[in-house]
Amino acid sequence: MLSKISYALRETAAGFRRNVTLTAAAIITSAVSLLLVGTTFLIQRAFDNLLTRWKGDVELIVYVRSDATLEQVQLIEGALKSQPSIIDVDRLRYLNQAESYAEAERLFAGDPGTLRLLTPENIPSQFKVVPIAEDSALVRELGEQFRQLAGVKEVAYAQDVFDVVSRVSQFIRVATTAMSIILLVVAVGLIWNTIRTAMFARRREIEVMKLVGATNWFIRIPFMLEGLVQGLVGGVLSCLGLWGLNTAWTNAVTDFNDTELAALVVTDGYASWVMVLLLGIGALAGAVGSGIAASRFLDV
Amino acid sequence: MIRLETVTKSYSSDVIAVRDASFEIAKGEFVFLVGPSGSGKSTLLRLMNRQEQPERGTVWVAGKDINDMPESKVPYLRRTIGNIFQDYKLLPNKTVFENVAFALEVIGRPRHVIRQQVPAVLELVGLADKEDRFPHQLSGGEQQRVSIARAFVNRPLILLADEPTGNLDPGTGEGIMRLLDRINSTGTTVVMATHDTRVVNMMRRRVVQLDRGVIVRDQERGVYD
Fold first, then answer.
1. What is the predicted ipTM?
2. Which tens digits make up the pLDDT trace of A58-68?
3. Chain B residues in contact with A204 (beta carbon < 8 A)
4. Which residues contact A1 (CB under 8 A, 6 or more apart)?
5. Do residue B83 and residue A211 have CB atoms under 8 angstroms apart?
6. Which of A204, A212, A216 is the best substitution to test chain B (most B C-beta atoms within 10 A)?
7. Which of A48, A50, A49, A31 is nearest to A244 (CA)?
């Protein structure tokens, strides 16, 4: 067993030395394609974050001044509940300052600058409103009325954000997904070709191996391992790239403090998950590509 | 040890390599397959280690129908069969020792077995002092001895030799034949395809003669006509 493992590792290492240029090409391609896959995931996540506060069909948010009195809050709530033909009273939700702060912590996770300005004391509390009325003009009209009420800091409409965000995110999603699939196929193809070339270069050896009774798996495994390592190295490079991109983006977004864009960031936890995923995809694509090649060309 | 029953093999519809061949080779026998080029000698050898599958008929090796065998069992069949070729099929970037060790390494034999068996078999073929040489530093006869050592190192039941003296001068060829004879005397069955009249006549063993894929003669202690 030990001698088999050491044989497989030696042959894998020898494979890299024999074929440096092709190996490098395969690794770089898989790195770039995996980077795109990862970027797609992060962009999706960032848009999701941006839209967190509009979750559950919330289309209108009434922000209440942090210095509003209890009476003012109750007045606003009463006014909202008095419009059952326009808003869904049962799904009206009030986030007090503590809850609003918890949400902001998530929203501005990548933007400590903004977050530092907020405290559970100075943050506005908010009413999240789900309208019943189909007519968005009606909802907007109601919103304008509330803007006049005492204690209301601001009224925000989902529609404004949605229109832009969903169009942009749709476009980016389709474009990056398509590109990453194409590049992934190219990467698998390149790994496949590297392995085919490696096997062709060693066809005499493989012929002898088959004649003296080496099993097909014994012959195949060093090649598959070579492909797997190519995919995995590509994965590691893509993770480094993704980390760099995410850090740069998060820093850049800090400049848009007061705009919606400040929420367009991804927290570290999710990025790490994506990186693990990239390593997995890379290893799998490499092993599959080289495995297919190794099986196809075992009859040399 | 080896039995063929009405075996037919063709490479395309009009090229029939072997037609209705039936014969049996007992354990420990030494058999020559003779005939001109293209008469089907090599195909018969390739049928015996399942490099080829027949269209019709059955090939039995060591009591097993090898055409009925699943693909996954074929490597284990091949471990009981040694192969020797006219062009040696040595790996040029490996030394004599490594070439022979390779045959044990790829079937997963542990290193201490390799260290013990490779020198022993190199001693047997008379190359004990050349284990660090590369194939291109050896004469043709020596290279063939390395290939015999590689075929025999795992002590196979059967040795299949395809024109092993074809590239060698008569004196060197004789040496190779003496070596094969010695291996045969240890109980290994040897099947050798050849059109080398001299070695067949010198050895006086069983001769199976082929002509355009058909067995036309099967003679104990025969000569090459």
1. 0.86
2. 677 888 888 88
3. 89, 91
4. B108
5. yes
6. A212
7. A31
